[in-house]
From TrEMBL:
Catalytic activity: (sulfur carrier)-H + L-cysteine = (sulfur carrier)-SH + L-alanine
Organism the protein comes from: Allobacillus salarius
Cofactor(s) it depends on: pyridoxal 5'-phosphate
Protein name as annotated: Aminotransferase class V-fold PLP-dependent enzyme
Similarity comment: Belongs to the class-V pyridoxal-phosphate-dependent aminotransferase family. NifS/IscS subfamily.
Pfam families associated with the record: Aminotran_5
Amino acid sequence: MTLYLDNSATTPVLPEVKDAMLPYLLEEFGNPSSKYYSKADNAKHAVQISRERVANLVGCKSKEVIFTSGATESNNMIIKGIADYYNEKRGKHIITSQVEHPAVLETCKYLESKGFFVTYLDVDQYGRIDLEQLKKCAEDTPPLLITLIWGNNEIGSLNPIHEVAQYCFENNILFHSDATQVVGKHPIDLEDYPGLRFLSYSAHKLHGPKGIGAAIIREDELGLPTKITPLLHGGEQENGLRSGTLAVHNIVGFGKAAEIALDNLELNIAELKQNEVYLYKLLKEKYKDRVKFNHLEDNKIPGILSVTFPGINNELLVKNLAPYVAVSTGSACSTSKPSHVLKAMGYDLEHIRSTIRISLSPSVSKQELDIFNQL
């Protein structure tokens, strides 16, 4: 049986999550927007409980959670919605980085075609932005939005989100972060980030179902929802910001996965760190100078290893490993292209095409990781 080590691409649905979802696929199939009868009320109640659980995981209010189909939609919804709603008052300058997920980069490129000006910040050798460069860009041309990935999906490094949030708060700049990779693997309490107004993440990265995610849209200082232009128009679901009949079974699964992730956060982080250290030492001892590591040892998402085997094509390596271990060459959303993340970090094409990503799970045992001794 193949050992699954591609958890940054997606995670298996937990049995408890599946069990929570099933009644809302079979018996409790009501539309939560309908009224008065029990199946509608039961669905509405289930959505509210799930909304509270999803909010608790990141420390925001339940009414600040807008359910979407996933982080890609959330990123598009937030960035395009802000650009459309605020550009006349705040201008058309957007600041992001060169190592964002394609859902952010392609959205920014689209907005450039509509007359917006986007600054793509450089990153250091570990994929992190420079806070001083960001401040200089913002001071030269005040931005309507700063959007930065919280934790990198290929190498795990964390951006200085707290410092950026504080800067944005002090300078009244709208700030969004794609937090897909860090939610459930890094403690987040949005009350500690007053300048962070928007957040995106997906259920399937934390052992929930695919096809459901959240756009966190914080209230302003008056307790009113921050305004954006909706991406989807139609009914009045999700405060009129995301029309369409709610996928109750997926929302319930998301809520259950969020509850479990929060309850086990410290334990999961500890397990991921232990597994990462164990695998790092195993690979280093086995392959010595034939292996290189691109990630930091700390201040990163636990459980993500970026590993380079110089001279070995990563596509062929992943293919040959597939019967035994499931790993990837990088982001599942850009598998047809060499990693733009490693390129922005300064690596040449030869290095990039020899690099794989291993992303661990708390449930993987050290005995299972010993399979690398046999490969």
